[in-house]
Amino acid sequence: MNNSAHFSRRRLLLGFGIGATALAAGCTSGSRARIASVAPYPAPQGGAPARYRAMYDAVVDEGYRIPAIDLSRVDPIYYRQEVADPTGEKPGTVVVDTANKFAYVVEPGGRAMRYGVGVGREGFGWSGRAKIQWKKKWPTWTPPKEMIARKPELAQYADGMEPGIDNPLGARALYLFQNGKDTLYRLHGSPEYWTIGTSGSSGCIRFMNQDIIDLYNRVPSGSPVLVRQGGLVA
Description:
Blueprint: H1 3-15, H2 50-55, E1 59-61, E2 64-66, E3 81-84, E4 94-97, E5 102-107, E6 111-116, E7 118-119, E8 128-137, H3 145-150, E9 172-178, E10 181-190, E11 205-208, H4 209-218, E12 224-228
Parallel strand pairs: 4-12, 10-11
Antiparallel strand pairs: 1-2, 3-6, 4-5, 5-6, 7-11, 8-9, 8-12, 9-10
């Protein structure tokens, strides 16, 4: 794709209010859990430490170039880091805390890998336990029929938008099922890294692309997932 076409497609998606935060489908409604606050980390002095600059540097993945994250646009609390496990879940479980905009992968020995996430409107629509039914590298994105009905210009993507850095699902997507049924809830990448830690956009749970790749590599298909809408229980 040439630069002109690349720019036009990105402008088209942004003009529809989709950006890189939409999902292939909305999420179903669910229950809410009790909120427990998480204390923020202070901002680093003198800029982000070298380990974070390396962690979020530009990378070529599966033939696609992912740009470096401008860490000055991301609150340091949302940098990927190992922390004491606040979830109480068994190792290998993914826990999404939508209230505090964190996702965790529980590790042995009372530790967890924590990621900052962005939560869209649909991301607040479902909670509970599920499993990662399947995972996809550089997924296609297909707008739901309801979205195409509202915005006919999206009909060009009715059979799916090809993978790429501007694709709304980013570098990876993890698809959550409950009792064998699709929850329509996704954990996915996003090039709009500056939206991490925020809510209100379309979509479910979005990660920085570098982080969703790390999560993808840590958890196999079939891994348990817990989504808490009200935050972690104290």
